[in-house]
Amino acid sequence: MAHGVPTMEQLESLKSALVNKPPYCSGTLRLPTEEYVLYFGKDKIGHRLDFTDVDDNILDKLAEACDVATFGVNQQDVLDESYRKAGKLDSKFFSPKFNFDGSGLRDIIRNDLLEGTKAEQNIRAELYKLNVYGPGSFFKSHKDTPRSETMFGSLVLIYPTVHEGGALTLRDCDKEWSFDSAQAVKDTNDPEIGYVIFYSDVEHEVTEVISGYRVTITYNLYFEPSTAAMKHTSLSIHGNRLSQVFQSLLSDPNFLPKGGHLGFGLHRQYALKKDSRSLNYIYDNLKGSDATLLNVFRALGLSPKFYLLYDDDDEEGSVVVCPQLADLEDDHVEGTIAYHLREWYGGKVIKRATESDYESDFRDDPVLGRHKKAVDMKVYWVTELTKVTEVKNGYLAYGNESSIEYTYGYGCLVVSVGPYGDRKKSIRRKKKRST
């Protein structure tokens, strides 16, 4: 092992301490009797549906009042009943008596889904739409479209109707879970409403309804800025484990003795503001294990930075991390995209440490030899970049002929660790003296 290079075992211990909580929570709730009532109607004709004593005629009227449900693709609503077959009502055509603020669901979200300081943020639930899934209805696997950068998830309420099928299947990070709402509401002695809460970027599908009507209302969930000063939050169980492992590494004189940079690919998806180059708002919107990382590093006195990493496979040494969103649509790029991002968007050219770097010294890297003067920092990756944070940018490239090219940015956190004995010290690239 080269002097000062972290071992694979050290980085693996840090990676294994990163535990992802399930990206959802589910169950049933017993509500006050009046909160099982739903009002709906169009064209000045209103109806009242009480789910504690369902009138099948009124339930049929609800299904008939629905429009054919569409789904979002590339910020457009698409109608395709081979992909989604269901009915829907927009929020202006129905009014539930359900009271989110008094339901206890806000506490469930904070305790069972969110981590660290996220659990203290104000949460707003915005009524979105009603869906009716009758016999033969389904919705194939998809992800929800975030309505803003502060939207972090969805709340789906399933009314207690007699139905079969229509289970909600969720998938994330090669794992799968299922919530069978038909069975869940059937197993209760008194009427209870089913609920599922999940992050916006979790893949999910509604399996085919065999019989009956599956009636749901969906709320979009948003983080809201707090008007009061935030109190200090202790780390979660997962955060404590990560903190202990990281502290152990920082106490090891053989772990990055001269300091260095650690990179973490993010696991959750975030909406980016097209009208804002700055990415500072992302820190307040991190979710799950991404938020845990941020909380742990800050608790240890470190300052992790959120970047978009751009990697051009056609250019050696052209890996750049940018602290802002690169709006390349109107840019004329001459030369490499790496140079352009560095020159105009504050990008830093990095050396992505690979397994071979744990066996050879950075200065002897044969590929980097031609580029090392342009490299701003070397990053050891603890967790890999994921496509869930992918951002696609098109730009006009000029060479012998102009052409439209594309580059992809991936969200990541990079934390700088100072030398042994002064871990909180910032790392700066040393400039060579001219000879």
From TrEMBL:
It comes from the Eukaryota. Pfam families: 2OG-FeII_Oxy_3. Coiled coil: none annotated. Residues 129-221 form the Prolyl 4-hydroxylase alpha subunit Fe(2+) 2OG dioxygenase domain. Gene3D superfamilies: q2cbj1_9rhob like domain. This is Prolyl 4-hydroxylase alpha subunit Fe(2+) 2OG dioxygenase domain-containing protein. The lineage of its organism: Eukaryota, Fungi, Dikarya, Basidiomycota, Agaricomycotina.
